[in-house]
């Protein structure tokens, strides 16, 4: 909305001082021409914004001008700034809205707290793009246009048409009743109902979406956390292989990266004494489990089921035989 953009423009000038039209356009994700029109509108409304000509020129506010925004103390603002440093906004397409909100948070602080809160927030890093092993975590890409339609349908309680590409199937349109949005480890999901049955759609597989005017058939209130737990349980109980595995603590993240799901189990006495973790992992099938555990070498051991142990034992024996004979 233009009103929100005008507020963001004023906050940018307050917090950063003089800025050029192209710099403002980049921050607000609009054209330079739109910025110039907004500057004219602010001037007409009595906001003391002025232009400085020359090589280092730009737009600025008269010294001392302050918008009337109140309410947050330093710790409250720090909590919001830190929470806003995660990447969930990328999954749901709220990056520009978050940037605008953070500018308002900073401006709401008293003058003596404004810079210290911003500096303190830079001392906290939430969900960095790489881990300690320099492995890059990949956020799935979601169409911004489609994401906007999905968000509006979820919040308005309207039916939604999505052009969805399910795994190993050609894309097709389907009409759903949206329940809510969930993000897990940088993957976004749409929880919905279709033809009376619960459905879960990965947002990165939604190629296009259209909010419909018809009201969605869904409960007025929903416990999204409970709904997600129930769907996870149903997903893991269908066509998946549960595996009991013991693994060295330093390789736990590697197991998490390859398994469909991992849950902690009560540690047996021997494993606990040696410092190993005893976990319940879920894999797509026997082949997937064998491949994943083979990557961990002697840092992991499948305790059950027996067919998986036999498969890994045969594979290890074949490798030993291959390298046991002279070249």
What does this structure look like?
By secondary structure, this protein is α+β, with helices and mostly antiparallel strands. It is 44% helix and 23% strand. It contains 13 helices and eleven strands. It has helices spanning 2-16, 21-28, 32-44, 74-83, 88-91, 95-108, 111-121, 144-156, 224-236, 252-258, 269-274, 286-295, 306-324; strands at 49-52, 58-61, 158-164, 172-184, 187-194, 197-202, 206-215, 241-247, 261-264, 277-283, 300-304. Strands 6-5-4-3-7 form a five-stranded antiparallel β-sheet, sandwiched between helices. The chain is elongated. It starts with a helix and ends with a helix.
Mean pLDDT, nearest integer? 79
Radius of gyration: 27 Å
Shape: elongated
How many strand elements?
11
Low-confidence stretches: none
Structural class: alpha+beta
Features:
single chain, 327 residues, alpha+beta, five-stranded antiparallel sheet, four-stranded antiparallel sheet, 13 helices, 11 strands, 23% strand, elongated
